[in-house]
Specification:
Elements: E1 3-13, E2 23-31, E3 35-39, H1 46-54, E4 59-68, E5 71-72, H2 78-83, E6 86-89, E7 96-100, H3 101-111, H4 121-134, E8 145-146, H5 152-166, E9 170-174, H6 182-195, E10 201-205, H7 209-214, E11 219-224, E12 227-232, H8 234-243
Parallel strand pairs: 3-10, 3-11, 6-9, 9-10
Antiparallel strand pairs: 1-2, 1-4, 4-5, 7-8, 11-12
């Protein structure tokens, strides 16, 4: 079991140090074998948390730590965090001209492997074909430039394809369900569920119970005003669907 631990995390935007903190003391532990859902109103720090864990240089950690099995990753770059086992499924995936989808994924896989143990072309293509078939992606998407000309749903499906191929220890999924119709949502959820194992843990940011109908979380956390204010099981998300977030306030955390 591998454990990702966030301890008393305070974060600001690096170029706006005079502005208030976005994260105000977040505590969260995610272990492999677990699926965590992070919910809460817009603009309250959920995406900031995911991007800070992944090492986005836009954000400045002013207090607290992020560790994997007790080793701090707070000062590591994005590439080093990826090699340590983190993957971020982005809310708005970037388009990169000149680099095909297949080239990008193979390079990402090999970056996490020793130079004398790079994945073979045949093994890579076999795994890629199987994953794309599972996600019902057309074959030509492998040869198209990364996310260029992809629909919103294709971009989200492509993030899951990358995660399935790279096989990280932790997937940080930032609103992977936004903009998906019901069929695409089911396919994306199937991809996440297929990875569920003792070697993989997930932190999913979502606003909607409908995703959690397909990916049943072990834990649901509610973030408001830069803090996690409540934690519960899958039933908490169903309760929030009925009551909303307005009645919750800092100090309500029960975990």
């Amino acid at each position: 079991m591998t454990t990702l631990k966030i301890t008393d995390l305070h974060v600001k935007v690096k170029e706006e140090p005079e502005h208030p903190e976005i994260l105000k003391g977040v505590n969260l532990t995610v272990s492999t074998g677990e699926i965590h859902a992070l919910m809460g109103p817009n603009g309250n720090g959920k995406s900031t948390l995911a991007e800070t864990i992944m090492g986005n240089p836009k954000y400045l950690v002013t207090q607290g730590d992020i560790t994997i099995d007790g080793e701090s990753i707070k000062d590591l770059g994005v590439d080093e965090r990826a090699r340590a086992g983190l993957f971020l499924g982005m809310q708005y995936p970037a388009e990169i001209a000149g680099v095909t989808n297949a080239e990008f994924i193979r390079a990402a896989i090999n970056a996490r492997r020793p130079e004398d143990d790079q994945i073979s072309i045949m093994k890579f293509l076999k795994e890629l074909d199987a994953a794309m078939d599972f996600l019902k992606m057309p074959e030509d998407m492998a040869d198209r430039y990364l996310n260029q000309g992809f629909s919103g749903g294709e971009k989200k499906r492509n993030e899951i394809l990358q995660m399935m191929m790279i096989k990280p220890k932790f997937g940080l999924l930032d609103e992977i369900d936004s903009g998906l119709d019901i069929d695409a949502l089911r396919i994306v959820a199937n991809g996440v569920n297929k990875m569920r194992s003792p070697e993989f843990g997930t932190l999913m940011i979502t606003h909607y119970q409908r995703l959690l109908d397909y990916i049943v979380p072990d834990f649901v956390h509610v973030m408001k005003d830069g803090e996690i204010i409540e934690t519960g099981g899958a039933e908490l998300a169903k309760e929030l669907e009925k009551t909303g977030y307005e009645h919750l306030k800092a100090g309500d955390a029960n975990a």
